[in-house]
What does this fold into?
Amino acid sequence: MMKNTLFFLTLIAPVFFFVPVQAGERESDLEPMTLTLDEVLTLGLKNRSALVLAEKNLEFIQSQYRLAQGNFFPDVTLTASYTRHFRKDIGFANGRKLEMGDEHGASVGADVEQPLYSGGRLTATKKSARWKVSFGEENSRSEKDETIFALQRLYYMVLLASATVSIQKDSLLSAEEHLQTIQDRYEQGLDSDLTLMNQEVEVALARPGYSQARYLLESALTSLKEVLKMDVDRPLTLVGALDFIEKKSCPDYNTTVRLALERNPDLLAARYKTQSAGFDVVSAQGDEKPQLSLFGKALWQTESPDLSPTADQRGSSLSAGLRMRYRVFTGRETSERVHQARIAYEIAQENEDVLKRSVHATVKSEWQSVQEALERVQSQEAALAQAEKALESTEKRFQAGQTGQLDLSDATLSVKRVRMVRTQALADFWIHQAALEKTVGTSLSPVSKPAEHF
It folds into this structure.
């Protein structure tokens, strides 16, 4: 019997000892990290792939602008050649065959062409490219603002989950304290067994809320770690709390709308795209006009029976002139390009108008959400003070036997509800405030940031 017991313990020992040791070693290898909001933003912006792609796209557009600038400079071409004639070239004159050239021939030349007039095509192309650079810069800023908002939202969701854990924990502790008080009174014969059982039910109902709140906190932290490209098993603590340093509203509605229409990166990008498309029309129209340019050519040639030509076997030439190029018939190619450019310009204008209305509507929605959340916060602050005062009074009256367990449970639940509503309102305020700043395209300075508790 003893041998069988020892054998059984040998089999199950790894289950109780080996696995937890590995988990403990895994956690001890990961150094805990503590981050403020600014540190979350810095880390998130550094690890965001979409920002890298936006910067690469901007770099490509800037290269196109430099390419458009290069069209204003002379086009210089150098040429050089060497020919070995195994048989001399022949020609015919007056019925006679003539041999020309020698065994070795070489030439070196330089061609230069400088545009003088392009019907406005070159200038329009350069201006279009410059507006495209501005378009790329705003696109990059928009991607950055989107990333910042996503990180802020996750940060505030973690703070909300953390505050919810604290509220649920306090509620559970309060229920357990009330249960201990009722047990003492029950032993003294002051409370009935029904009152005791009712309070035990209150404690049992408080435990799942606390467990769920902790799970939601871990889930929110895991989502943030994933965005920050951290090890999801690494302990992370955020420095901050859903509270105000100063309770001030955001700027008035008209000012907020004006700022959004002036600074929203998506709207600015649409405006710059419209400007660029307008110059694309001018550039396409330039192909319908004559193109003038100056040209020059220098050429040095030699032909000799050996590789040491004499003065009579080498020579040079130099020429310059004015060249005009006018495309008389292109099978409607040029006119259709102009037509397509005009259509692209009209599409850009319509997209800009649609986006302008969308930005205006988004600002109104977010501004109203900020105001509504702010009103909820301010209303619940007074309610919280009253609820806590009522709970304190009810606890004293209960201990004195002047009220029942039902009144005590109601007072406790009221405090919990007010705290939950206020906490949710604070989270809504900061999330909508961040969304409003993203839409406006700038920080709304009258509102301070969440208080940081170290």
